[in-house]
Write a structure and sequence with these properties.
- The structure is a single chain.
- The chain is of the alpha+beta class and about 525 residues long.
- Helix content is about 25%, strand content about 20%.
- It has a seven-stranded mixed beta sheet, sandwiched between helices. Strands 4-5-7-6 form a four-stranded antiparallel beta sheet, with helices on one face.
- The radius of gyration is 22 Å and the shape is globular.
């Protein structure tokens, strides 16, 4: 997920479901025929890198960096329709559906020169399966892992588990050296050893982290770039100005209000929009009174004019949201429209609640995020008509993320993307308390939803799984733990000399293929 930050997440593209995003046509960074080696790319982002230990993060700011440093057994396809080989060159499922055998690529080494073997794979997945990992639910189906030889891994599940190959493509199951190459986990998180295209050079927490090309990377000739630097710049205007001024090459998630100016920069800066699994939410802490009452949440949902948000905040670059799953997924239930904007209905819901005449509360926004600030003001004005007085609380992005994670907030903003091509991850991440983020930090619990999700994961029939996922989405919609606001593409501003930059539907970058012309 994402909490203005929060991280994670996709699913296979939905058959017959088209996502209308905006008059801004989908575009990708321009590509020339012959890539050039060299160049030091700087990417600006509002959120800071928090950890480089694969088993730990739930925020995309960490996840998408981890994916540049480590490899996984499999990779999601760029369009989200399946998985392809990465460290595993092939994989098979046993006739009883319980055993998955992966054959590893030969000749892969970690950046410390150590060969990558099945022993490392077993160790890595077992770390993510530990209760201390927020993504332990991803590997909860695994009964045991065996290593018949250095290049074979056999994963046995407790019951047939359809999402297993997709789960082997998630960042949390990135392959690290056995026993963290002799380091303690906390030390490894600061000095990672991976087999991916880039390796850590320097890191000033909260400021920037630089990664050099891995000269021993197993994909010959890649990466093209000498280095990549992820620099934290919370203010969206500053990020736009630095890309326009040439101090940086990519602005991750420019403010929608800046898109027009960036597009008219004379060609030095381009704006790319990419198909996405992203869903933005109004996050509601279901443990705080009176937000623990379903009618209060329904009243708030009914008082939000999503069309206005899309028009005023996104400048038309999005679609009002219904179901909490993304239209990019085959699990998306297009019949769910959410709670339509209806002030009469909103007042009726509030009258049924313990606070019929309204109440006071806070809505949290991340500093420097002009989109969140505008949304908060619009929502503040709308719910005021119900007698709900919201005070806008501005925190720096890191503090806002921590508040969401720890439940120290009342209302805020979050988003999710998916990390894998199967719906299992994100439907748990947002809908299940045990799904890694306590139901996208709403702390919502529903045992019936958990049962439907677990049953769906054991089925190989997609139609049967879809029916269960539709039940999940319908129940979640009734309970309205959060408010899905809109579906959007991923939007980036980038310099005209950046080529091959094309984020996957799952959100990750794949900077291994990016290059810069002189």
């Amino acid at each position: 997920m994402k909490a203005s930050p929060i991280g994670s997440c996709l699913l296979g593209l939905a058959a017959g479901v088209a996502m209308s995003v905006s008059p801004l046509a989908f575009s990708a960074a321009s590509a020339q025929d012959t890539p050039v080696r060299g160049g030091n790319l700087v990417m600006l982002r509002a959120e800071q890198l928090r950890t480089l230990l694969p088993s730990q993060p739930t925020d995309n700011a960490s996840i998408w960096v981890i994916e540049e440093v480590f490899d996984t057994l499999l990779l999601p396809k760029a369009d989200g329709t399946g998985v392809v080989p990465d460290l595993a060159t092939s994989w098979t499922q046993s006739s009883n559906g319980l055993e998955w055998t992966f054959h590893l690529r030969h000749g892969v080494t970690f950046t410390n020169g150590q060969p990558l073997t099945s022993k490392d794979v077993k160790f890595s997945i077992e770390q993510t399966a530990k209760p201390s990992s927020p993504f332990a639910f991803i590997d909860a189906s695994i009964a045991k892992i065996t290593t018949p030889d250095p290049y074979t891994v056999v994963i046995t599940t407790k019951k047939p588990f359809a999402p297993l190959p997709s789960d082997m493509a998630i960042f949390a199951n990135s392959i690290v050296p056995y026993n963290y190459a002799g380091m303690k986990p906390a030390d490894f998180a600061k000095h990672p050893i991976g087999s991916g295209p880039f390796m850590l050079k320097s890191w000033t927490p909260g400021v920037e982290a630089t990664f050099d090309r891995n000269p021993h990377y197993w994909r010959k000739g890649l990466p093209y770039l000498n280095s990549i630097t992820f620099k934290t710049v919370a203010d969206s205007n500053t990020r736009a100005n630095e890309v326009q001024g040439g101090q940086a090459q990519i602005d991750e998630f420019p403010a929608y209000s800046s898109i027009s100016a960036l597009q008219n920069s004379g060609g030095s800066v381009k704006v790319g929009t990419f198909p996405s699994s992203r869903v933005d939410f109004l996050s509601i802490n279901n443990t705080k009174k009176p937000f623990d009452n379903v009618d209060v949440r329904r009243a708030i949902a009914s008082a939000i004019n999503k069309n206005t948000l899309v028009k005023v905040v996104l400048f038309g670059h999005g679609t009002p949201a219904g179901a909490y799953m993304s239209p990019s997924s085959w699990s998306f239930d297009k019949s769910i429209k959410g709670y339509p904007y209806d002030m009469k209905a909103a007042k009726a819901y509030l009258k049924k609640s313990p606070v019929p005449n309204g109440f006071s509360g806070t809505i949290m926004v991340a500093s420097g995020n002009s989109d969140q600030q505008t949304m908060a003001q619009i929502i503040q004005a709308s719910v005021a008509k119900l007698g709900i007085k919201l005070t806008i609380q501005t925190l720096d992005p890191s503090a806002a993320y921590e508040a969401l994670q720890n439940g120290n907030y009342e209302i805020g903003f979050g988003y999710d993307t998916t990390d894998i091509v199967d719906p299992d991850e994100i439907i748990r991440f947002v809908g299940s308390y045990e799904g890694g983020s306590h139901s996208l930090y709403s702390f919502y619990k529903n045992k019936q939803i958990d049962e439907w999700i677990n049953k769906a994961a054991m089925l190989n029939d997609q139609a049967a799984r879809q029916k269960l996922y539709f039940k999940v989405e319908e129940q979640w919609n009734k309970d309205s733990p959060d408010v899905p606001l809109f579906y959007t593409p991923e939007v980036y501003a980038y310099s005209g000399n950046v080529h091959g930059f094309h984020p996957f539907v799952t959100g990750n970058y794949g900077l291994v293929n990016v290059w810069m012309s002189k």
